[in-house]
Amino acid sequence: MSFSELGLHDDLLRAVTAQGYTQPTPIQQKAIPVVLEGRDMLASAQTGTGKTAGFTLPMLQRLAGGKKPGKRQVRALVLTPTRELAAQVGESVSVYGQHLSLRSHIIFGGVGQQPQVDALKAGLDVLVATPGRLLDLHQQGHVDLSSVEILVLDEADRMLDMGFIHDIKRLLRLVPKKRQNLLFSATFSNEIQALAQQLLDNPALIEVAPRNTTAEKILQTVYRVDRDQKRHLLAHLIQQHGWFQVLVFTRTKHGANRLAEQLSKQDIPAMAIHGNKSQGARTRALGAFKSGDLQVLVATDIAARGLDINELPHVVNFDLPNVAEDYVHRIGRTGRAGSNGEAVSLVCVDEHGLLSGIERLIKQNLPKRIEPGFEPDPNAKPEPIENGRRGQQQPRAKRKTDGQGAKADGQRRRARR
């Protein structure tokens, strides 16, 4: 099947062809006709399946076909959980809409708001935004959402994880009740299904990959290692195998900073991105990583959400995630679009419970290795995981209050800045 068979107009086909795409991915084959029909949609697909184009292309076609005279009003609103994902979606809107007379802009926190205010004042057709900054600008009287015809919630599961549900509900009260709604989520959790019931009207359900599965083309390996030997093992593996463009996940921001510094001292160019970094620093690090000037990018889960890096060969879990589903999201950044990829997890005795949870989720036992010279101490005792949620380490009530609640509150505050 070709893109032209999906009913896309010539101006959009020209832009798609210029990007080197010839055949739509499965999510695009299913989503584009649904969006063109004007139906609501609930879609789930693994990272790297082309879902952004799956809603951007038909959204632009619908807007171009129903352009209204007078000052431009925001007719399509795309909400994303992170700045990086907002930038990625905004870039797709610009690239695919380059031959259309539509105007778009991106709004997120962490940067000055005046250019965003100026763009809103000039008039927009498509607005891509994170919830916190969008609400701030609305409260200041800069945003009018009364003409929105298409509402997209991208990576809705992550928005719920980050505590944006109240912001989303506030924004829903600002848009017209009659509109087209498109909801994208990596998982169909109970919370997502509840949100879909509130938001969607007789939606088309699209799921192009089994729930909570990992891509078949990703080689997954676990290295057992002592906690204080992880960074030495990581440097050893990178240098021994000549890995380049390595995305490394840590559990905390402090851990990301420390690991990036340690790798750099061992002549492995590395930088960290996380919520405490300025938007400029994050953009520079990501740009250097994409261009090949930076060998290793160390990231936390929140900062890495929405990273769009073609043919990323290596993902390393320096720390296993506290939530098993995040393992699927992490390693889904390699092995994309049919390419082969490698996902390596460095697992110490503290994380055996987390590893078991991941294996239950993905319904497979991951191959375990011990690298010569890095043999773990068989008598090592597990310790509580920093910023983690170990069931055996903390009582349930305290864990919920001190861990999840504080974490979500902090993420909400950072996202709004």
UniProtKB/TrEMBL annotation:
Keywords: ATP-binding, Cytoplasm, Helicase, Hydrolase, Nucleotide-binding, Ribosome biogenesis
Native source species: Vreelandella azerica
General function of this protein: DEAD-box RNA helicase involved in ribosome assembly. Has RNA-dependent ATPase activity and unwinds double-stranded RNA.
Molecular function as annotated in GO: ATP binding; hydrolase activity; nucleic acid binding; RNA helicase activity
Compositionally biased residues, Basic and acidic residues: 369-389
Cell compartment(s), UniProt: Cytoplasm
GO cellular component, one term: cytosol
Similarity remark: Belongs to the DEAD box helicase family. RhlE subfamily.
Domain Helicase ATP-binding: 32-206
Region of interest: Disordered: 369-417
SUPFAM superfamilies: P-loop containing nucleoside triphosphate hydrolases (SSF52540)
Motif (Q motif) on chain: 1-29
HAMAP family per the UniProt record, alphabetical: DEAD_helicase_RhlE
GO biological process terms held by the UniProt record: response to temperature stimulus; ribosome assembly
Domain Helicase C-terminal, chain residue ranges per copy: 217-378
PANTHER family in the record: ATP-DEPENDENT RNA HELICASE RHLE, ATP-DEPENDENT RNA HELICASE RHLE-RELATED
Name this polypeptide is given: ATP-dependent RNA helicase RhlE
EC top class named in words: hydrolase
Top-level taxon of origin: Bacteria
Main location: cytoplasm
Catalytic activity: ATP + H2O = ADP + phosphate + H(+)
Domain DEAD-box RNA helicase Q: 1-29
EC identifiers of the protein: 3.6.4.13
